[in-house]
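Task: complex structure prediction.
Instruction: return structure tokens for all chains below.
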Amino acid sequence: EVQLVESGGGLVQPGGSLRLSCAASGFTFSSYWMSWVRQAPGKGLEWVANIKQDGSEKYYVDSVKGRFTISRDNAKNSLYLQMNSLRAEDTAVYYCARDVDTAMLDYWGQGTLVTVSS
Amino acid sequence: EIVLTQSPGTLSLSPGERATLSCRASQSVSSSYLAWYQQKPGQAPRLLIYGASSRATGIPDRFSGSGSGTDFTLTISRLEPEDFAVYYCQQYGSSFGPGTKVDIK
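Output:
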């Protein structure tokens, strides 16, 4: 059974940093692109970033470029999102998702809440 | 950047009725990268349709997708109680549409 479990969310002050993790199991992690998607409270979905199987390609939504870094550790079956210079508008539930050939997100974790507030 | 719009914003229907949801792109997109997701309150999104018309694993056949170019449609042939949710389209590589909420009339 495919499982994705996010962790690392919490309350952080504006300008602060946070690192999200996503532990994957039930599939060959190193064979898939992976994505992060976020959802602000009461709002719609926003794709944030994705990363190729070997980490050689990474893409970001414009609003996080230069502040967020996606990475992965295939030996640990883990995906990460390093978030720096956080802003109030980054407040959201962050989901990791398995990315099939950059065409669809077929499995999602349950999400981790990031709150940016003073 | 491709912008997706969805209509209507809210669809109020009764169980057993047919639901037709629209997703329109600001420019022509590849059908291969058009997907639909369902999200219920407090839950993660779930993939319903990929490649504009292929059902994801385990998705009932009352869900169908169609369309090409700039206009895509998600149809739920007969609404079941568990189908009342928010539906998002996505052109991979772009963000998601704003969503259509299907609620009980």
